[in-house]
């Protein structure tokens, strides 16, 4: 049986063997002629003698062609049978032929009654086999193929009906012919209110005449138009849409339809071009895009998401103008004033783009990423929820009491401090390569019986001359390090003094890089090393979200804002200054101490993850990009220009924040075995938090960290993808850290390898 393929636009349709139903009450030359023609054409043929059997056969087989004998009304009513068939859904795309008598002695009768009955066309009796065959072949390549294409349109309309984008189809004269449910929802109309209406009858935003002329001049010459457009809903509200309008070429090579595809401007939209005419032929090529591995979005996109826009009313413009006339003018106010002034003389597309920019600038969280809710990786969602929020404000009868009533270790309660000269050989050996990035902190942890911070601190602080800068004795420094280490919780699997020592080591390593040394002053180096040492002191092994949900005294004390980081910084100064034996600041001049204290606090608070993207974006835009521009312009030898970028007070703050942030979460950039060990430790701490949340009936802020189901490779890849890659790309571009980036790439491959084998554990089985 022949099977043909039919090309329908870009669709390739597969047409099976055609089926023909012959409805003849008696066998005669005419019925035999069509039967022979079906055999010759390769069509499957069925014969029915009565209307009842014809209807039953059609409902069973769904024929493509039905040929009904209309020559002898004494047998059955051919028109009544056709009407019966047409009442069925299956007949929508069926071709029905009426065989009529040949009359040579009277005037030709009208075909309209047959058309009204549902026939597609008539066939004047001719029993010639070739005449029957020719009729069938003409039907196959004419009406049957056309109906076959129309049948395929059902799938296209199903796709349009289910599309989440609003779609509108108009005629060449801009008469609305179709809108999908998404369009109805977006605009507030029912389809019956729009069909056969001209676009001019549907309300549009005022002052858009010039803008519409721009659009029409583009689409009327066969080009696509894409850009942002303000439309008015049925209730009168203005909405901002990203719109693409596509002209559809039809009969005669003329534009016969326009298809408009719209979506609301929402939080996840990237910054778009305001107006763009696109040649239809090159559209597919121009839409290809490249993404860096393991990226969900670029830095610039994350830093320019907005809350959307409902348009700017005249009333709001006048009230905003009064606000901007105030004499208290912050930098952001100046920017908004400049944009407002630019709008006055700008064409409509530019003014609308500036409206969107103003909406972005008026949000309070300019740098916070906004995750989708449906397709977002649950590991990423949970990590962001657990690390970048202050918990779910849910009332609970349980209270998690922490720190405020605990007794902290002070100098007098500790054993006599060891001396730098009294370090045992095994510990000395473990610290031999502490200036190298591949230094093994876990070897030092084992050698010191989980007290690595005192020993590593003594060595690193001596190397940087901290005692000389602070004008304090070595014994005071030793006492201070012991007090700080004693207030880290050794029971925590991750946030213990080994983590502090690891961050101290990374900080010292970064401070030794040439670009960093050019940038920071001695007081900055001292502040960075002290901040690294104390940045997680008295950490309870639970996240800020947990403490807020549990109603802990610390969360209440710090108003659910940067709870732990505020506590670490405050407690560090409390422990230091309450006892002269460990007060490393006691001999400092007052103003210098205040400056040092300010830098330490700022760096500790920078480790809080809610402002992660703000710190990274500011670093990229204020430091990476200006330095790159100088290098691209051939000014890398211009020391003064580079110095201006590096040494400005604002940029030095950004560099110090970035330095401690990278040191704090540098685990994925460590050698593989260290990376794996840290991954196991942080996972165990999160597992323990999930266990406790369930025991206490608290909201579970990171559900994927269930020790029975969690995939550690997936969680590591999500963390690296979302937090690590962009940040270390930026830091590497500044400080030149090829060894770290090599470790990072190797560790990504390692976790991907485990995940690709559907393994949820730290290491593959032996």
Automatic annotation (TrEMBL):
- Which residues does the record give as Zn(2+) 2 binding sites? 536
The protein's UniProt keywords, in alphabetical order, are:
cAMP, Hydrolase, Metal-binding, Phosphoprotein
Enzyme class, broadest EC rank: hydrolase
Name the active site residues: 495 (proton donor)
Cofactors, names only: a divalent metal cation
Which family does the UniProt entry place this protein in?
Belongs to the cyclic nucleotide phosphodiesterase family. PDE8 subfamily.
Assembly mode: Interacts with RAF1. The interaction promotes RAF1 activity.
Query: Can you name this protein?
Result: Phosphodiesterase
Organism encoding this protein: Certhia familiaris
């Amino acid at each position: 049986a022949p099977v043909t393929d039919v090309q329908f636009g870009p669709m390739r349709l597969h047409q099976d063997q055609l089926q023909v139903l012959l409805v003849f009450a008696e066998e005669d030359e005419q019925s035999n002629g069509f039967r022979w023609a079906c055999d010759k054409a390769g069509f499957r043929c069925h014969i029915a003698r009565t209307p009842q059997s014809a209807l039953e056969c059609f409902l069973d087989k769904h024929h493509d062609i039905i040929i009904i004998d209309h020559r002898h009304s004494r047998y059955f009513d051919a028109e009544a049978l056709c009407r019966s068939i047409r009442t069925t859904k299956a007949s929508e795309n069926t071709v029905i032929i009426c065989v009529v008598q040949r009359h040579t002695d009277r005037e030709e009768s009208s075909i309209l009654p047959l058309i009204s009955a549902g026939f597609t066309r008539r066939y004047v009796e001719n029993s010639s086999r070739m005449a029957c065959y020719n009729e069938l072949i003409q039907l196959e390549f004419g009406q049957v193929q056309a109906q076959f294409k129309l049948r395929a349109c059902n799938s296209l309309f199903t796709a349009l009906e289910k599309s989440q984008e609003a779609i509108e189809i108009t005629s060449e004269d801009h008469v609305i012919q179709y809108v999908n449910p998404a369009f109805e929802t977006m605009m507030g109309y029912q389809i019956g209110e729009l069909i056969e209406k001209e676009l001019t009858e549907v309300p549009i935003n005022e002052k858009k005449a010039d803008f519409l002329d721009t659009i029409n001049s583009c689409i009327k010459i066969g080009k696509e138009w894409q850009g942002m457009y303000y439309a008015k809903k049925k209730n009168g509200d203005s909405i901002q849409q990203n719109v693409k309008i596509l002209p559809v070429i039809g009969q005669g090579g003329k534009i016969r339809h326009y298809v408009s595809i719209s979506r609301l401007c929402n939080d996840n939209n990237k910054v778009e071009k305001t107006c763009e005419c696109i040649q239809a032929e090159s559209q597919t090529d121009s839409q290809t895009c490249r993404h860096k591995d393991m990226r969900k979005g670029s830095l610039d996109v994350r830093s320019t998401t907005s809350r959307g826009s409902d348009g700017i009313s005249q009333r709001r413009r006048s009230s905003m103008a009064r606000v901007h006339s105030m004499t208290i003018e912050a930098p952001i106010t100046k920017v908004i004033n400049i944009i407002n002034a630019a709008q006055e003389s700008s064409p409509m597309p530019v003014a609308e783009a500036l409206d969107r920019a103003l909406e972005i600038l008026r949000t309070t969280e300019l740098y916070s990423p906004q995750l989708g809710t449906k397709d977002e990786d649950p590991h990423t969602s949970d990590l962001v929820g657990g690390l970048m929020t202050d918990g779910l404000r849910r009332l609970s009868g349980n209270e998690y009491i922490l720190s405020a009533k605990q007794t902290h270790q002070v100098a007098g309660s500790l054993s006599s401090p060891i001396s730098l000269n009294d370090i045992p050989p095994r510990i000395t050996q473990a610290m031999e390569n502490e200036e190298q990035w591949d230094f093994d902190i876990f070897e030092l942890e084992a050698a010191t019986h989980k007290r690595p911070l005192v020993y590593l601190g003594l060595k690193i602080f001596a190397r940087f001359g901290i005692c000389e800068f602070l004008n304090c004795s070595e014994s005071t420094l030793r006492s201070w390090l012991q007090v700080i280490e004693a207030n880290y919780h050794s029971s925590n699997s991750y946030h213990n003094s080994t983590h502090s020592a690891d961050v101290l080591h990374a900080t010292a390593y970064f401070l030794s890089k040439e670009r960093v040394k050019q940038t920071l002053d001695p007081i900055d180096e001292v502040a960075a090393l002290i901040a690294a040492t104390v940045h997680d002191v008295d950490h309870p092994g639970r996240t800020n979200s947990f403490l807020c949900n549990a109603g802990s005294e610390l969360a209440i004390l710090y108003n659910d804002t940067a709870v732990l980081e505020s506590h670490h910084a405050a407690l560090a100064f409390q422990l230091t200054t309450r006892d002269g034996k460990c007060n490393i600041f006691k001999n400092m001049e007052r103003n210098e101490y205040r400056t040092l204290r300010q830098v330490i606090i700022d760096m500790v608070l920078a480790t809080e993850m809610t402002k992660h993207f703000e710190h990274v974006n500011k670093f990229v835009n204020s430091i990476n990009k200006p330095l790159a521009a100088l290098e691209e312009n051939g000014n890398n030898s211009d020391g003064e220009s580079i110095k201006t970028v590096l040494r400005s007070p604002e940029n030095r703050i950004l560099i110090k924040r970035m330095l401690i942030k990278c040191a704090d979460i540098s685990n994925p950039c460590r050698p593989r075995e260290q990376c794996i060990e840290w991954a196991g430790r942080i996972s165990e701490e999160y597992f323990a938090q999930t266990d406790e949340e369930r025991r206490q009936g608290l909201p579970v802020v990171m559900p994927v960290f269930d020790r029975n189901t969690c995939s550690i490779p997936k969680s590591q890849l999500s963390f690296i993808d979302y937090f690590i890659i962009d940040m270390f790309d930026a830091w590497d571009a500044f400080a030149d850290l090829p060894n770290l980036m090599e470790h990072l790439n190797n560790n990504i491959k390692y976790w991907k390898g485990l995940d690709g084998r559907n393994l949820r554990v730290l290491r593959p089985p032996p």
